[in-house]
């Protein structure tokens, strides 16, 4: 990790992802990309030629990781915070990855999406890491940007999935990461217009319940829901799992990335 300074005097760090093949500048404080973003990218079933939208992209971590792995995608990074969007744009350029960066509230109306060329039925793949901490149980950060990035309202998930359903083509795919204890919210939100769910529980500790879930859903899909064996980030000794480390280094994908 290398500390640098932005022109607007905000402290940023430059961090290596995917074994160093992706370098990202991000704010030193506030929401920071990490394992969640890389696992989301490794679970995204994008193919060359696809139009891929990363909703709530932050500094572009997950979307750019998909672009580094797949190549030749039409990547759109959507972020509400103009400062983070600026960093995402700079990160795409620094990594020689083509991406259109749009400053837009994911929960905006259809006409706002259309105004930035995100019309209905125009995207092949959506990935997203919405704010998912419960505001009732989670202490809200005094840092406004961090709070927006981390804490969900009662309508956050349903609104984000509604926007996704609108812009996805028929049979287009959504991949998202969420709290494992919020799986009922995810299933309820996806019950309208999505099917063929694939669920991958993520465990930080082999002896503990899953704390995250990765979910892939198909717009208009009819296949039954499948739950994969849990992904263990660490083994019984607390040592990082080698297979997971290979995925985080960009040398593997998760089962959800295979349609």
Q: What is the radius of gyration?
A: 17 Å
| Head-to-tail CA distance between termini | 35 Å
Which stretches are low in confidence, meaning pLDDT under 50 for 5 or more residues running?
Answer: 3-8, 143-150
- What's the β-strand tally? 14
Order of helical and strand elements: EEEHEHEHEHEEHEHEHEEEEH
Mean pLDDT value: 91
CATH architect. name: 3-Layer(aba) Sandwich
User: CATH topology, anyone?
Assistant: Rossmann fold
**Biggest sheet character:** 9 strands, mixed
CATH class: Alpha Beta
- Total number of domains: 1
- In helices, the fraction of residues equals 25-40%
- Oligomerization status of the protein chains: single chain
How much strand content do the residues show?
A: 25-35%
| Class per helix and strand makeup | alpha/beta
Primary descriptors:
259 residues, alpha/beta, Rossmann fold, 3-stranded antiparallel β-sheet, 8 helices, 29% strand, globular
Please render the helix and strand layout as text.
Layout: E1 2-5, E2 11-17, E3 22-27, H1 35-42, E4 51-55, H2 61-70, E5 74-79, H3 82-94, E6 100-103, H4 110-115, E7 123-128, E8 133-134, H5 144-150, E9 151-152, H6 156-167, E10 168-179, H7 183-190, E11 194-203, E12 212-219, E13 226-227, E14 231-232, H8 242-248
Parallel strand pairs: 4-5, 4-7, 5-6, 7-10, 8-9, 11-13, 11-14
Antiparallel strand pairs: 1-2, 2-3, 10-12, 11-12
Helix pairs in contact: 1-2, 6-7
